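Blinded run. Sample ID left blank on purpose so nobody reads anything into the name before looking at the predicted structure. Input follows.
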Amino acid sequence: MRSWIIFQMVLLVSASCAFAGDVDSKQSGQTDRAAGTPREDNELKLRLVWCPSGEFVMGSPESEIGPFAPYGKHFENEKQVKVKLTKGFWMGETTVTQSQWKSVMQTGPWSGKMETKEGADYPATDVSLKNAMEFCKKLTDKERASGRIDKTEHYILPTEAQWEYACRAGTKTAYFFGDSSDDLVRHPVLIFG
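Blinded prediction complete.
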């Protein structure tokens, strides 16, 4: 069995990092690894957490109407589907910071944007999909050159299924805190914050 380490992208606007490296689970001792086990053994000190293989129902029931649904209706692309992830993977715990992005890309696409705060620990934003993929490739090349990962390992963006599986973290409710959208005010990070 292989494991994956993945970079997360938040709305394809903020860069976030996960490592989807193919690693032999038995060789790397990942067969007994608990969900949420952290690692930071990369040059950027990106904190990655382990997501074991598993099954879940992706999407939401038609009866679930979220606060961002058009005209109070269910999103058509949210139909429920049973998904089985056969490989575990590493997911970035947070978005990639501006200093991490600059370390790899030597650019700051967020610079000068009125709505964006700037600083080493703020998220890298205004990143295109193409640039996010290039970030993953360059980081993979740097990590391979340093010997921290081998030729079968690589940083990638997560699939939609991996992203939702990691976000759900075993829950079956509409939100990690329950089913009521009334509680969103207590959890502003969910409101595009």
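Unblinding after everyone has recorded impressions. The CA atoms of residues 140 and 154 lie 5 Å apart.
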